[in-house]
Amino acid sequence: MPRRVSLPAADDLFRPSGAPEQGDARERGTAARQLATVAPVEEAPAAEPVKRPSGRVRHDEKMTVYVTADELLDLEHARLSLRRSQGIAVDRGRLVRVAIAMALADLEANGEDSVLVQRLTGD
Predict the structure, then answer these.
(1) Which of 18, 45, 51, 96 has the most beta carbons within 10 angstroms of its beta carbon?
(2) Is a pLDDT exceeding 80 seen at residue 103?
(3) Residue 112: inside a domain, yes or no?
(4) With contact defined as beta carbons under 8 Å apart, do 38 and 79 qualify?
């Protein structure tokens, strides 16, 4: 008897990626685990809103950034260094999102004196 491989149907491949309203227990459990892993953001004072990196959530927007080979090696070195010395396992995307959040927070707090403005103007 020949073995046939069962492939997913088109509906399974192109279903919405949000939390499943219906489905088997495995899908509901996965969605519950995903919702449980999102840490609540602490409330900041109303006067100064604090922007935090998004962390491990589904990202709906995409941005492509081109880097040199040396910049990519530096980024990978930083990622591995964080893992080795701090025990923080982080992917490159999350590392970049945290760096962007830090740069934007510094720009908002310090304006013209921010590190971002200094690097972009060559001062």
Answers:
(1) 96
(2) yes
(3) yes
(4) no
